[in-house]
């Protein structure tokens, strides 16, 4: 057991794989994101439970195409028109950094009987079932990496790269059920500064130190 400012402190870390149904700026549509969520924190007797960490998510945005016509003055020939069409594919990496997550309410209970203890799944320091409600505020960074293939009358230009980075503040509420102190299952609702709601569903493993 560690000591922090004179009170008992029980640290933990957890990792989750999550699915998020997010939004993107490209055409104001949705994007499916696969995420890794890492958290570390602890429970202090006088300060409640808190944690810090980050989410790293990956998804593919809908493809897009464009076509533009340009007028060119060619010596001797005169004005000519040239059409250039482009096909763009874009991948999105979303990095989410909560400034702090704090558990504002919790319900904990053991399953009646000694079966979890007999089969070795009962935690020595945690209840069999724990529902914790978390509140957080943080910042999202969206990194959109694109590749565009251009086709002209004179040939093609392939894999022209592009990058676009945007950030937003957000608030988030999470309901998380932890089974036997080891398996966290969570549902989160994140609201960004434009009022868009992103649900995230996660499952993983928790280590209590």
Mind explaining what this structure looks like?
The chain has 209 residues and is mainly beta. The protein has one domain (2-59, 96-148, 165-208): Porin (Beta Barrel), CATH 2.40.160.20. It has one helix and nine strands, in the order βββββαββββ. It has one helix spanning 115-118, and strands at 2-4, 7-23, 30-44, 48-74, 78-109, 129-152, 155-179, 183-192, 197-208. It has an eight-stranded antiparallel barrel with strand order 2-3-4-5-6-7-8-9. The longest helix is centred in the middle third of the chain and has 4 residues, at 115-118.
Which properties best describe this structure?
disordered N terminus; Porin; 9 strands; 2% helix; elongated; 209 residues; eight-stranded antiparallel beta barrel; 1 helix; mainly beta
């Amino acid at each position: 057991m560690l000591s922090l400012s004179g009170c008992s402190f029980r640290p933990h870390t957890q990792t989750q794989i999550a699915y998020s149904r997010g939004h993107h700026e490209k055409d104001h549509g949705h994007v499916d994101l696969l995420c890794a969520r890492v958290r570390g924190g602890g429970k202090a007797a006088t300060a409640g439970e808190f944690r810090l960490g980050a989410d790293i998510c990956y998804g593919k945005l809908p493809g897009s195409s464009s076509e533009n016509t340009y007028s060119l003055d060619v010596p001797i020939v005169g004005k000519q028109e040239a059409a250039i069409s482009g096909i763009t594919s874009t991948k999105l990496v979303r990095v989410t950094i909560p400034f702090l997550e704090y558990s504002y309410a919790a319900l904990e209970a053991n399953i009646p009987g000694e079966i979890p203890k007999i089969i070795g799944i009962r935690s020595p320091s945690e209840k069999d079932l724990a529902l914790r409600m978390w509140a957080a505020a943080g910042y999202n960074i969206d990194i959109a990496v694109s590749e565009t293939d251009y086709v002209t009358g004179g040939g093609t230009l392939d894999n022209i790269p592009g990058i676009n980075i945007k950030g937003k503040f957000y608030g988030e509420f999470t309901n998380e059920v932890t089974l036997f102190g080891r398996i966290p299952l969570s549902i989160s609702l994140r609201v960004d500064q434009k009022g868009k709601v992103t649900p995230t569903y996660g499952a993983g493993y928790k280590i209590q130190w």
